[in-house]
Design goal:
By secondary structure, the chain is an alpha+beta fold. The chain is 62% helix and 11% strand. A hairpin with a 2-residue loop joins β4 and β5. The site of adenosine-5'-triphosphate (ATP) has 21 residues, from α7 and α9.
Length: 359
């Protein structure tokens, strides 16, 4: 009796494992689930029937068979319903993936089905949106870069042709040509820096550095321009300041861009101020001016690649609208923040933070 029970249990186990193996090798999800559901019902009922028939021959075979068929049918309907709910999002995801891989980055999948499938759909859509944003940004970058490279190149070509045709002596255009070549060089350097920032391949040589010399060197660098524009330049740096952890040449570059921007936007007799404050675990640096301040659009877009507020007025390609995009990339690479705001008494304030070194 015990030997028979053990034999029956062993046979059920072996058949069950065999069915599970077959189910796991099936190519379709619904077929796997259906096979498993049928096995889960048919196996216990089958072994009960075999056991009953051999031991008691109870005559209730028909009843047990009817129950088996009903349970199997119920399982099949259940599998069909669940399968439909599972397969609809899978098929939608397949279609969206095919569209994306053929280059249509606007493809999205409906976020339907059980929670796991909805989460998968939402993660897929977020990934597609991110890819689309990157693609748009790249297209825009190439368009603007080629536009800004073309302007000085066309002007260089025109000047060269004038010299070649003997229309003008070389000395007449040499200073302008050297200015255009410098502008082109700056633009290419900026593009290279941006590309490295975007790709995350910029390695910063971080050191513990006092902020004061950085500010002083920046003020010295723009003093002549400030004087020429009739703008006062002041700095307010407290005596006791922790060092900051930074790559000094990169921070100087950021400061220089902020201060030259401020100078350009400050009318004669105005002032540009560099302020430094120590706050919790970081140092806050602000560049303030008494210019026209920032429009709503500027506040939203001034850190974008190639955005400049006075695009129409700039024809010589000397200003690319990359300074703040690079500044943001550099400050974020240091683990700091950078932002812009309007001052309550007029003018703009651009601030950034740098991590303070442990004292
Ligand atoms: N202090 C400021 N006051 C008013 N507008 C500003 C100020 N600083 C920046 N802006 C606006 O933000 C735009 C973007 O500045 P950003 O430094 O990125 O570019 P840019 O100075 O025009 O060119 P680049 O720095 O590449 O030579 C500027 O064109 C200007 O319209
Ligand atoms: Mg600038």
């Amino acid at each position: 009796m015990i030997a028979f029970s053990l034999l029956l249990a062993l046979a059920t186990l072996l058949v069950g494992l065999g069915l599970a193996f077959v189910a796991s090798r099936m190519p379709r999800m619904w077929a796997q689930v259906a096979t498993l559901a049928l096995a889960a019902i048919a196996l216990p009922l089958g072994s009960v029937m075999v056991g009953g028939a051999l031991m008691l021959n109870s005559g209730h075979d028909i009843t047990v068979l009817a129950a088996l068929i009903a349970a199997a049918l119920a399982a099949l309907v259940g599998v069909w319903l669940i399968g439909r709910r599972l397969l609809a999002p899978v098929h939608a995801l397949q279609r969206a993936t095919a569209r994306i891989s053929s280059g249509d980055l606007s493809a999205r999948t409906p976020e339907i089905g059980p929670r796991e499938m909805r989460e998968l759909g939402s993660a897929f859509n977020a990934m597609a949106a991110h890819l689309e944003e990157l693609q748009d940004a790249r297209t825009q970058l190439v368009a603007w870069a080629s536009h800004d490279l073309r302007a000085p190149l066309a002007s260089l070509q025109a000047m060269l042709e004038a010299v070649e045709d003997g229309v003008a002596p070389p000395e007449r255009y040499l200073p302008a040509m050297s200015e255009q070549v410098r502008a082109l060089g700056d633009l290419v350097d900026d593009l290279f820096e941006l590309a490295r920032l975007d790709a995350g391949s910029l390695t910063l040589e971080l050191r513990n550095v006092p902020v004061t010399p950085l500010v002083e060197s920046c003020v010295r660098g723009v003093e002549a321009e400030a004087h020429a524009r009739g703008v006062r330049i002041v700095s307010a740096v407290p005596e006791q300041l922790p060092d900051v952890i930074c790559a000094p040449d990169k921070v100087e570059r950021v400061l220089y861009n902020l201060v030259t921007n401020a100078l350009r936007h400050t009318p004669t007799d105005g002032a540009v101020a560099l302020r430094v404050e120590s706050e919790a675990d970081h140092v806050l640096v602000s560049v303030e001016d008494t210019g026209e301040g920032l429009s709503h659009e500027a506040l939203g877009r001034m850190f974008d690649h190639f955005w400049r507020g006075d695009r129409a007025r700039v024809r010589d390609g000397a200003r690319a609208g990359l300074g703040l995009a690079i500044a943001r990339g550099l400050i974020e690479a240091h683990g700091g923040d950078i932002w812009a705001e309007n001052r309550s008494d007029g003018g703009a304030r651009i601030s950034f933070t740098l991590p303070a070194a442990a004292v």
